[in-house]
Structures are given as C-alpha cells and as structure tokens.
Amino acid sequence: MAGICELFERTGTAMSERFCAYCRWYDGDDVCGSCRRNAPQPCTNDGQEEYQYFADWPTTFPEESCGEWADKNITPEQEERRELVRRFALAIVSTEYPRNQAVAAIWKFASDLADAEPKIG
To answer: For the chain, N or C: smaller number of CB within 10 Å?
Structure first.
C-alpha cells in the first residue's frame, strides 16, 4: 500500500483532502492507525494470545477516508458554528429572501445570525 507522501506526489492532491491522516478521529502515524470516532468494536484473536475476546478501535490507513471525517485543524465548536451557518444559509435561500442577492451577502447574513446571542429576560 502506498504511503501518504507517495500518494500525494502521485495524485497531486492537497492536504485538505478528506483522508484519515487529516481527521480529528485518526490516531496513528503515516503507516497505520485507528479510528476513534466510535466506541471500540468486539474482536477475537482466535486464542493466539492470553485474551481471546477483547475490544479495539478499527484499524485504518492514513490514505483511507469515510463519511465520518472531521477536520483535525478545527475545534468541535468551530465545526458546530460552521454547520449552523450552513443551516441558516439554506433557510435563507429557501424563504422569500430577495433572489437577486449576491451569494456572499447570503453567507454574511447567515454568519451574522449564527453569531447573534439570544436575549433572555
């Protein structure tokens, strides 16, 4: 299996690609690691070691990817805010918001809504 550096050289892809090596849940090096997105899964070692049944995280390779990928360079709070802005933008577009508005204006308005603090009392 090709190493991550060799894969990037061969395909010319950027580090922003959604590979395990750049995922928040990946725990490993440039050869092999494990995915910590979900709880460890039950495993068996067919009696070759002291413990026959145990739990372990799935083994992954740095150049693999999946639907649970999360950028390791942003915090969960930043990801939540990003998702909130996306939802506001979708809601704005699906309403009677003026159709002639520039896309940048819609994203700016959605971002302002996401930053608004609710007033209590």
So the answer is: C
Q: How many CA atoms lie within 13 A of 83 on its CB side?
A: 8
26 near 60, Cβ under 8 Å? Answer: yes
Owner of token pair 């039950």: 42
Domain assignments of the chain as residue spans, ordered by start: 4-60, 76-115
Q: Are strands 53-56 and 41-44 parallel, antiparallel or unpaired?
A: antiparallel
Q: In whole angstroms, what is the distance from residue 39 CA to residue 37 CA?
A: 7
By residue count, the chain amounts to 121
Its pTM stands at 0.55
Please tell me the distance from the alpha carbon of residue 57 to that of residue 109, in angstroms, as a whole number: 41
Tens digit of pLDDT for each residue in 69-120?
Answer: 888 888 888 888 888 998 988 888 888 777 777 888 888 888 888 888 766 6
CA distances (Å), origin 73, targets 15, 24, 70, 108: 11, 8, 9, 23
